[in-house]
């Protein structure tokens, strides 16, 4: 985490108010919250998520009350959970209690019960636990955002379904819980990116049944060919989400993007040689969900009489949240 320093600490160390203003005016220092500054060169120029994390720590340091915790999207950033779309502009916090909700130019404060079991500390800052963060996202954010965050948390064993259920139970009859239950029940821990989660939701909402996920495919001799995002195994159809992360996250030492693209093509050629049909969708496709469902439906019809692919498969089991 990029460190910040308070105005009081700077004054105590000998800086004058004029010197502080001068450093801010030249851009050498950056204000990340009222009276909180990043003074290291480049410290305020990390990724959007990294900058929001610094702002969250800085804003929370201004609250003297132990009743305040980072929550919602800000907590998701600190926990390393994926966010859909741009990172939050406002730092989101929750005040333990029933009163005190407000929004300023930099912070959104919600009032809600936050028992000790739903609190953790990250780099000294009080934050809602992963389980409570998922519940809050499901209560107040877009359903896809909550499902994608839950998928990641479940897949990486950052949380269990029973922990999420317990966090929700501790909220009693708080507003938004019935809808939150319905949302979180759709998470299953078998998506490795927001795009994969979105693809699964599109297919399920479109009535595509019998889907398997994180499918490991081997050839006739047991040799590993690859792992695919989703598919209809009994029909020999594989469905891949083609996000940029697929070609950047798993680059090998010394590889360029073009090397990863070529490796992916060879993998797909090997899958087709075994008899698999491979469908690929990207974000532009998922913005037209009806077209995606129609294309998969057409392939289902075409594959009814097709021979099953050679080799063997093994799919991941779901990890669900039940209430």
From TrEMBL:
InterPro entries named among the record's database cross-references: Restrct_endonuc-II-like
Bias-annotated ranges (Polar residues): 100-109
Location of region: Disordered: 97-116
Protein name per Swiss-Prot or TrEMBL: DUF559 domain-containing protein
Species: Candidatus Avipropionibacterium avicola
Lineage: Bacteria, Bacillati, Actinomycetota, Actinomycetes, Propionibacteriales
